[in-house]
Design a protein that fits this description.
Layout (H helix, E strand, L loop, with lengths): L1 E6 L7 H14 L5 E6 L4 H10 L4 H11 L3 E9 L2 E2 L1 H8 L10 E8 L7 H12 L3 E2 L4 E4 L8 H20 L3 E5 L5 E4 L2 E3 L5 E3 L2 H8 L4
Parallel strand pairs: 1-2, 1-3, 3-5, 5-6, 5-7
Antiparallel strand pairs: 3-4, 8-9, 10-11
Helix pairs in contact: 1-6, 6-7
Protein name: Oxidoreductase
Keywords: Flavoprotein, FMN, Oxidoreductase
GO molecular function: oxidoreductase activity
Length: 215
């Protein structure tokens, strides 16, 4: 399965890219994925030119193709003015309007203060809902004080498990394990063995139910 990671970090090194890499690595622990990273800061000029002439440059066209062909997407942005960055929004503005329809997406953001964590719900989730993507229940926000602190890793693993389950459900491939809401490893019924030796795809609702804590 192909996992594309879109990182809108501007600095080098970037906490946004660091979070993106940790999320991608966590997905790789739950499902067999080939990861491709799209660094938006490298596409900034081509994105601007696209808005003025309507034609993508070679690198931007490759990024558009990668996102459209992905089985799943991780989208991470730094917070600017209590929302996603302009570069982040501009990239998704230049995608084909149907590029993300039905595609599993994990959204995440980084910022200097925990007060901006609601950006995930009031900005990122509505954006991808508008684009008709399937956004996983757990979104991940990392403030400056979260790095190295307890709690961030659990959120990363939980979100990655949800994305891996959705990707496997669409492809019909099994997921070995993931981390549930309680932080414990759980087996995911991403696919069941069929009578002909193949796999039967399990509905999203049933896959997500496996991630819920046992009561």
């Amino acid at each position: 399965m192909k996992l594309v990671v879109v990182s809108a970090g501007l600095s080098v090194p970037s906490s946004t890219r660091l979070l993106a890499d940790r999320l991608a690595a966590a997905v790789g622990r739950t499902a067999a994925v080939d990861v491709q990273v799209v660094e938006l800061r490298e596409l900034a000029v081509e994105i601007a030119h696209f808005f003025t002439n309507g034609f993508p440059g070679k690198a931007l066209a490759a990024a558009q193709e990668a996102v459209a062909g992905a089985d799943g997407l991780i989208a991470v942005t730094p917070v600017f003015s209590a929302s996603y960055s302009g570069l982040f929004k501009s990239f998704f503005d230049v995608l084909d309007k149907d590029a993300l329809v039905g595609k599993p997406v994990l959204v995440a953001a980084t910022g200097g203060s925990a007060r901006h964590s609601l950006v995930l719900e009031h900005a990122l989730r509505p954006l991808f809902a508008y684009l008709r993507a399937v956004v996983v229940p757990t979104a991940v926000y990392a403030a400056s004080e979260d790095w190295g602190a307890e709690g961030l890793e659990g959120r990363i693993e939980r979100a990655a498990g949800e994305l891996g389950a959705l990707m496997a459900g669409l492809s019909g491939r099994p997921v070995v394990s993931a981390v549930g809401a309680s932080g414990a490893a759980v087996d995911l019924p991403a696919a069941r063995g069929g009578g002909d030796g193949g796999f039967e795809v399990v509905p999203f609702a049933e896959q997500l139910a496996a991630l819920a804590p046992k009561r």
